[in-house]
């Protein structure tokens, strides 16, 4: 049975907890140190987005396997305000909070698969997977 | 408490104590108490139950006082709160049961239950508030200790300072870093500040953003910032994220950063033996 870990994000400490859980699982799956850093950074990015824009939500991480490949899936979901224009948030340098605007496009580059689903006033769910090579 | 209830509780004291000690013995195997020796466990139980009986004829204020010395000791010895609450709950249950079995009429009175409830609830409240107070103290002092550790600026040479960062950077810490950095630069008349991020586990966009802002602010007060301690995996994630750290110089280790800083202030380290 696949073990799924879920971390609630409602304070900055939730980000740290999610990151640590992610690093632990990535290490267990067998990712190298660079990929571990990529995954933890991606989780950090996603968790921070939840904390910044939706106030609360959750990060769940699990091991996945498909077509003989093993990987790690990170799902970030919240019931926040949603993203008005998904196309523009995926552009580098777009920000509504005065940050660097590198978060979501950065996560897309850090991970292998990236899927974003957002509806205004409904919330956002981001599913991303890093495959073990 | 009503005198007649008190009297009958004290009358049945031995019976209650005996049953309670039996009951509490069973907790031991379920709880985290297994590594406590038998004799210590027994004597603590004995003392606990004696303390409970001591409070039977006190009003709630005195209860607090009497119990707090005892709880302080338990807290210091690291007994779990679980032991206290479960102990008191089973004590209440046993007391009510024992007294009900006497067959006296008053036992069916709602008042009787209320008296016992409020007696035990007072005890639980006193103990729980002592425990949580001690936790809050611990958390508070650790928070302060963490804050003291969070962003030190160390003057190492004339005009050169180092700020080693270790651990997670949250927004509160980022603010401290900025403040200490600017104050320290002015105070020490530093020309070059080395920010060492060897101990920072993750550099995401927020952390990078804070560092960029800090470096920019340092530039505004007339000093120069060098970011050192960038591990290879951090370098890769920063590139993946597409963060531009090109506005200030970066070095892999503090040692190299220090050499650059010395060069920037027209100095170098020479080996006396080779002269």
TrEMBL record, chain A:
CDD domains the UniProt entry points to: HATPase_RsbT-like (cd16934)
Alphabetically ordered keywords of this record: Kinase, Transferase
Molecular function as annotated in GO: protein serine/threonine kinase activity
Domain Histidine kinase/HSP90-like ATPase: from-to ranges: 34-133
Organism from which the protein derives: Texcoconibacillus texcoconensis
Superkingdom, taxonomy of origin: Bacteria
InterPro entries on file: HATPase_C_sf, HATPase_dom
Name this protein carries in UniProt: Serine/threonine-protein kinase RsbT
EC number: 2.7.11.1
A Pfam family: HATPase_c_2
Automatic annotation (TrEMBL), chain B:
Keywords: Phosphoprotein
A Pfam family the protein falls into: Rsbr_N
GO molecular function: heme binding; oxygen binding
Boundaries of every STAS domain copy: 150-261
PANTHER family, sorted: RSBT ANTAGONIST PROTEIN RSBS-RELATED, RSBT CO-ANTAGONIST PROTEIN RSBRC
The protein's name: RsbT co-antagonist protein RsbR
Organism: Texcoconibacillus texcoconensis
């Amino acid at each position: 049975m696949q073990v799924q870990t879920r971390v609630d994000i409602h304070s900055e400490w939730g980000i740290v907890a999610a990151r640590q859980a992610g690093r632990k699982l990535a290490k267990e799956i067998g990712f190298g140190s660079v990929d571990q850093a990529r995954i933890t950074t991606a989780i950090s990015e996603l968790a921070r987005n939840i904390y910044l824009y939706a106030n609360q939500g959750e990060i769940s991480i699990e091991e996945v396997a498909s077509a003989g490949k093993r990987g790690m899936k990170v799902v970030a979901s919240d019931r926040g305000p949603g993203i008005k224009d998904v196309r523009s948030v995926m552009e580098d340098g777009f920000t509504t909070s005065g940050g660097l605007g590198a978060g979501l496009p950065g996560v897309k580059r850090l991970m292998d698969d990236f899927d974003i689903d957002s509806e205004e006033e409904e919330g956002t769910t981001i599913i991303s997977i890093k495959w073990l090579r | 408490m009503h005198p007649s209830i008190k009297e009958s509780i004290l009358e049945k004291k031995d019976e209650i104590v005996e049953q309670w000690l039996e009951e509490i013995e069973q907790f031991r195997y379920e709880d985290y108490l297994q590594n406590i020796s038998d004799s210590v466990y027994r004597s603590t139980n004995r003392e606990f139950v004696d303390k409970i009986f001591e409070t039977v004829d006190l009003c709630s204020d005195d209860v607090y006082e009497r119990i707090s010395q005892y709880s302080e000791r338990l807290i210091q010895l690291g007994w779990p709160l679980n032991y206290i609450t479960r102990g008191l709950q089973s004590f209440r249950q046993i007391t009510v049961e024992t007294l009900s079995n006497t067959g006296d009429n008053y036992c069916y009175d709602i008042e009787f239950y209320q008296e016992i409830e409020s007696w035990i609830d007072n005890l639980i409240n006193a103990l729980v508030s002592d425990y949580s107070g001690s936790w809050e103290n611990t958390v508070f002092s650790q928070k302060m200790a963490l804050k003291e550790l969070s962003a030190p600026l160390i003057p190492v040479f004339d005009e050169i300072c180092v700020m080693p960062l270790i651990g997670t950077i949250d927004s509160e810490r980022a603010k401290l870093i900025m403040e200490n950095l600017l104050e320290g630069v002015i105070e020490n008349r530093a020309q070059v500040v080395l920010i060492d991020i060897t101990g920072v586990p993750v550099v995401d966009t927020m952390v990078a953003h804070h560092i960029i802002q800090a470096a920019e602010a340092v530039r505004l007060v007339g000093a120069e910032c060098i970011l050192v301690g960038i591990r290879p995996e951090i370098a890769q994630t920063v590139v993946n994220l597409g963060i531009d750290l090109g506005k200030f110089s970066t070095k892999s280790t503090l040692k190299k950063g220090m050499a650059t800083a010395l060069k920037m202030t027209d100095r170098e380290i020479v080996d006396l033996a080779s002269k």
